Amino acid sequence: MKEFIQSLPKVELHLHLEGTLEPELMFELAKRNHIDIPFNSIAEVRGAYSFHNLQSFLDIYFQGANVLINEQDFFDLTWAYLLRCQDDNVLHTEVFFDPQTHTERGISFETVINGIHRALVQGTTELGISSKLIMCFLRHLDEESAFKTLQQAQRHQDKIVAVGLDSSEIGHPPAKFERVFKQAINLGFLTVAHAGEEGEASNISEALNLLKISRIDHGVRCSEDEELVKQLVRERIPLTVCPLSNIKLKVFDSMEQHNIVDLLRRGVCVTINSDDPAYFGGYMVNNFLAVVNAHPINKAEIAQFTFNAIEASFVNKHEKERLR
Length: 324
Ligand code: ES4
Ligand code: ZN
Hints:
- The chain is an alpha/beta fold.
- Helices cover 51% and strands 14% of the residues.
- It has helices at residues 2-7, 23-32, 42-48, 54-64, 71-87, 99-103, 109-127, 143-153, 178-187, 202-211, 226-235, 243-248, 260-265, 277-280, 284-294, 299-312, 317-323, and strands spanning 10-16, 90-97, 130-138, 162-166, 190-195, 215-218, 239-241, 270-272.
- Residues 16, 19, 54, 61, 166-167, 194, 197, 245, 275-276 line the site of 6-chloro-9H-purine (ES4).
- The site of 6-chloro-9H-purine (ES4) has 11 residues, from helix 4.
């Protein structure tokens, strides 16, 4: 089974570049940029990665991002992730970045996007890994900050396919960003949103109805609303599920209790993704293995996760044929 999963072609649709910052690179960048970090060793950093909910993770995640200063840092971060994709036979990836995490501390939008974009282009030419870039708004910040970020993104629309919504779900429902998403759609961006991760199922319906999203990031709490599950099946609305993330952030008590295989068998277009792999214990192969080790599942069902991801991806028909 391990070899089958290793060699299975994969497509990743839910990955935060800031969440791929491994402790080793964190130390290297801290040194290079003369930034103080509150850790004395790599082991100490890993020891701090024990979370009791989404917020306890986000606090550490935003702190880690402080070592990213120059364009080259964003390149190095992205390139290191693409090498992991190569290791895990990921052929195509659609990655998130959070510009506000950086612009709020004085790093320019250009520094961030130019470093990331240069690495993604090199990933295509040197590794044969295709990619799309999705810009997320931090939902704990206000509408005005999101509008400002959307404006900054406009001159980079050739590099960004979609906008998304991440960070603290509880207390920051999709409705808060209805006007921002409306403008983004008018400008020609596709839309996605984290919904139904920690927050209730109604956030999923609200994101679909108000933000016109093409797919739902996480969405695992859909099972609390039977009618919603039926709608997801009927309309083939994809969920980008992140199994190891959900266990680390205590969305489910154990992988055995995770509903991803149940949703797959009920006909929901579910996919497997790594979210913030440096923090949650693994990249794509590890996420597949964690699911398979906890749930009896056959090879055709495992391969269905990849077929679903191809279907849910933002590539054109021609590129979907290539991935199949
Ligand atoms: C995130 Cl797991 C998760 N949820 C919401 N926002 C995020 N940003 C990075 N990882
Ligand atoms: Zn996420």
